[in-house]
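Q: What structure does this chain adopt?
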Amino acid sequence: MQEEALAQAQANLDVVTKKHAVGSASGFDKMRAEVEVANLKPEVISAKNNLQSAVTGLRTVLGLPRTTEIKVEGVLAYIDDDFSNMSLAEFQNQALAARPEILAVKEQKTISGKGVTVAASSFMPKLFFQTDYSYMAMKNDMKFGHGDFSKGFTSAISLQLPLFTGFKNSKQYQKARLDHKIMVDAEKQIFDGIAADAEMSYNKFQEARQKYQAAKESSILAQEALRLANLMYEEGANTQLDVLNSQLAVNRAKLNYVSSLYEYQMARYQLRKAVGKLTDVL
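A:
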């Protein structure tokens, strides 16, 4: 983008230089065009350095050797998203159904609920039934015969009544109920947090879409305004200041356009993170 801005400024300088050579442009106009070109050159150098720094940072994150060459492919372009036609309620429901946090806390709440049931059972009478079947033989010389063995079969039933346990059962029951209440509150907090996160991600995505459309229209209008400004300046119908202002507007519009594309792409990733489906590169 900075290289394009420099090319536009250089083209404008060429036009002003030609007009100055035939006396139809002042020396001040030529000097102002030269200053604009000179101001843009450092920005181009900085942009190239920032690109190299970004590549170096990416190499570091990936753990690649310093000599590894990274070739950037693809373009930053607008792509319609599958979530574009989904309502906020539908998006929130999908997030609440798929996020691993809500699934995990539901399981924990179920376990804590069963813990309350187990703790409450300590207050109830317990009935035990036991049965035993034995086949025994006793002899001094290890020479057993069939007649040496005897069979036995016993059964027993017992009933336990927890009359007094030193308040142990009561404390265990209270702790189990408290643990279950904590899990219920945690589920609500996670539920509300996921719903809020989904809403913010959804609204950010819609905002990014609208900003892209506005930036796209603004960029088109700014480029047309610059074309007309250059044409009118060549015909002597406006001033060099009008051309420079149009160039500045084009640069600002292009910057907003690229920024809106980046913001839109990041919003698409955030959408998938909100519903627990961030599994691939978009």
